[in-house]
Amino acid sequence: MTHKKTARELLAWTEETFFKDADLLAGSLLEGEERRAYRLSQVERLLTEMNGSCPLGLYLSDEFWTADEGRKEFDTPNPLLSMKEQQKLTDEEMSRLRMILEVAGLCHDLGLHFTFDLKKAFGVKNLLWVTNKQLVEWLSTTPYERIAMHMAYIMKKFATSAYAFAHYQPAQDELAELFSSEYGCLVHDPNNTEIPPRAYVKTIIDAILRIERHWQRGRRLKLRPDLVMLHDEIYGLVPRQFDKWVLKAAQALYDYMDKELQGRLVLKDYDYNASSWNEQPESVRRITAEVLNRFADKVCEVRVQYLAKGWIADNSLEFNYLMAHAEWCGHGWWRREDEAL
């Protein structure tokens, strides 16, 4: 970015480079829904047109902000963001600048996949989840298909983080490695996919919605959150239904964890300054190994009692899911009946 230009010169350069033939002045005078439509049309264009492997919209946002969330200025900010420099512009120039900043801001958040105010951007309820019917409807029908792809990817990223925070590993992994069976490929970010826009959006929404419906089904059955997760960890994925025998196995593990494991790894000798596990006191390593080994024995006992041969094989993904859940429980995170995913 060139910082030697005056604000007026830089404004003219920005218009010529990013908004040529876009009738920016007319767009800057619009209000309400007409202004939103113009803004979205420009964002759609700038996220569709590519400069090498990068959307042109990201080059526009880079003229003003870093790649951080929150639109942070560079150490040497663009003169067009300076109040002192803005005072040198005419009212008409300021009107065009405001529209440029609105477009650049949405390009920044969409192109870098950050969360933002959905009400202001799209006119829908500001809730980034598939239960937001307004948002799902907008994404499924909007003519701004490139924007919808980036927004769906933000939803996928947000949901993956939410499941990771809740230690709901089957759901986390499913979204992180979401696969389109129709197109035979992983669902990468919008700039690195061959999946058509409508199908791309539908694939993401359907995946999150299926997980959400599974969780709601668990609530209707009055299953505790950790019991639902144990059931799915035994499966190794988020299934479409609850299996009777898998639930029995999950209940047996739940009861064991509730009575024998919860909080057992909260140890007074634990060294929070240790840089590696090997630097923990011998007593901590010994007790942790004993507690987790007993849980591993319980898993073996449960799979023989309730499950068919081949389920929860030693060192399988499912086994590791359960062991991670046990460690989490041992550190005191348990009985999360009031938490909702």
Which structural category do the helix and sheet elements fall into? mainly alpha
Compressed to H and E, one letter per element, the order equals: HHHEEHHHHHHHEEHHHHH
Ends apart, CA distance between termini: 43 Å
Q: Write down the overall geometry.
A: elongated
Radius of gyration: 26 Å
Give a count of the beta strands, DSSP E runs of length 2 or more: 4
Topology:
Elements: H1 7-18, H2 24-28, H3 32-48, E1 50-51, E2 54-55, H4 56-62, H5 83-86, H6 91-111, H7 118-122, H8 133-141, H9 145-165, H10 169-176, E3 179-180, E4 185-186, H11 197-220, H12 225-235, H13 244-261, H14 282-306, H15 317-330
Antiparallel strand pairs: 1-2, 3-4
Helix pairs in contact: 3-4, 3-6, 4-6, 9-10, 9-11, 12-13, 12-15, 13-14, 14-15
Please tell me about this protein's structure.
59% of the residues lie in helices and 2% in strands. It is elongated. Strand 3 (179-180) and strand 4 form a beta hairpin. With 341 residues, it is mostly helical. The strands form 2 sheets. The protein has a two-stranded antiparallel sheet. A two-stranded antiparallel ribbon has the order 3-4. The mean pLDDT is 92.
List keywords for this structure.
two-stranded antiparallel ribbon, 15 helices, mainly alpha, 59% helix, elongated, 341 residues
